[in-house]
Structures are given as C-alpha cells and as structure tokens.
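Each letter names a residue; the fold follows as tokens. Both lines appear below:
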Amino acid sequence: LAAALRTVAPFLLMLPILGVLIWLVVGRGLRPLDAVARAVTTRTATALDPLPEDRVPAEVVPLVLALNDLLDRLKRALQAQREFTADAAHELRTPLAALSLQVQLAERAADPAARADAFAELKGGVRRATHAVQQLLTLARQEPGGGERVASPVRLDDLAAAVIAAQLPLAEAKAIDLGGAVTSGEVLVTGDQEALRILITNLVSNAVRYTPPGGRVDVAVGEDTTGPFIEVCDSGPGIPAEDRQRVFDRFYRRAQTDEAGSGLGLAIVESIAERHRARVLLDDASLGGLRVRVQFDHSLPP
C-alpha cells in the first residue's frame, strides 16, 4: 500500500496544476467566442450591422460569417416589412379618405335620388377598400415567414377548373368568353394547394377585370419539356414591354387603365411562384392582349 501511495502521490500533486492549466487553455480558447457573444448580446433590436471579422481566430471565422449572414437577412426582412407597412398605409389612406367624403355627401344629400347615388358610391368604395385589405393580407401571408406551409401533390388542372367556375359569373356579367383547356392530362406539381389556388385566381380575375366587355380569356394548363405550366391569355389592352417588369411591384398601377385595382395581384402571383421555384413570364397574347405564363421546373423542387 505504501508503495502504491508513493507511486500515485506525484500524480495527485500534479492534478491541481493540470486542472489550472486546462482552465487557462480552455479559457484562452473560448475567449474569442466570449467576445462574439458579448458583441451579439449588446446589440439592440435595430442594430443589425455585421460583426467585425478581423481580430477573430480562423476557427471562429465561419461562425462570425454565419451570424453576419443571419443579421443581413434579418435586416433585409425588417426593411421590407417597414416598406410594406409604409406603402400599405399610404395606399389605404386614399380609399379611406374617399369613404369619409362619400359619407359626408350622403349625409348632405337633399333628395332620395341623390342619397341613393351617394350610397351606391359608398358601397363601391367599401368594396374596393375591402378588396385592397384582403390583397394586403394575402400578400403578407405569402411572403417568407408568413406562416407554416405544407407541400403536397397538387393537380393544377383541377385547381384551374375550380377557379374558372368561380370566375364565370364575373365574366358573364361582362359578356366575356372565359374557357379553359388541359393540354396533357393530369398536371401535377408539389406545393401549397391554397397558395396555388390564390395564384390562379389572381391571374384569371386580373384577365377578366382588364378585358373589355365582349372579350375573351383563355386558360391553359399543361406540361412541356421544362415542367408543368399554367397560362392565361386575354383580349384586353395588354401591357407594353417597357412596363412589364414594373407590374410586379407592389401597388403599381398603369396610368392608362380605367380599372381601380389594388396593384397587388401580380405581386402576389410572383411571390407564390418564387416559393414554388416557378417563373412568371409576360408576353403578347395571340388574342391581342396579355399572355401570363407560370412555368414550373421539374428539376427544382419547392
């Protein structure tokens, strides 16, 4: 036993020294991480500038780069949210002011006919404001971070048929010939069914809205060598080539049109298409108006 103690004693004496050395080495190694942690915890909610990458050991650089990438994405998301809120407030101010004026006109109307006209204008204003709010909510839900979404197999041909049936009353009210064709049997994509329904609804309703009475709107669903597609053509006024990129901007409306839309329809379409790795292509339609094609890609899963 005495011999064993003499053998172990030197190691027991070295344990405290070894513990101190380990503490010093680990502390020195973790010091850069502590510095990064302090730099992050001292930031305010609006201070999203990148962390400095100099004076950081090579082992910690990947962590700093990842944090900077996250900060950059957060900064862009917050900026987009601020711009969206400001644009929405600006766009809603006009219809709300118009509603207030129409209420005053209805209150001041001297005879029943004038009062009826004022209330008719008021109802139209409420309808337009409601549509604008609904479109704003739809766009917000389709933006990144707008909520959990489940991808599943979706038949585009069935969705298009349902949307056409829902839009037929509006088309018939304007004597517009609205029809659909499926060029390749069942057309399947993987995605968010409700979002894709909204996409097709916006395409078809826009075409019906901007096509003059007595015109025509054709909806085609099919699949080519690239992948599934949906295409909407109309006999409306079309969009000049120089304006086609701008129509995807939020709240953009062409000055030459008489339709008072929200300016969000194609912005919603593009947002949903991007989430499904699809492209939105605008071109002249053989009917004389606009052709909008949403092209999905077999090789790019959502």
User: Anything to note?
Assistant: Strands lie at 152-155, 177-182, 188-191, 216-223, 228-234, 279-284, 290-295.
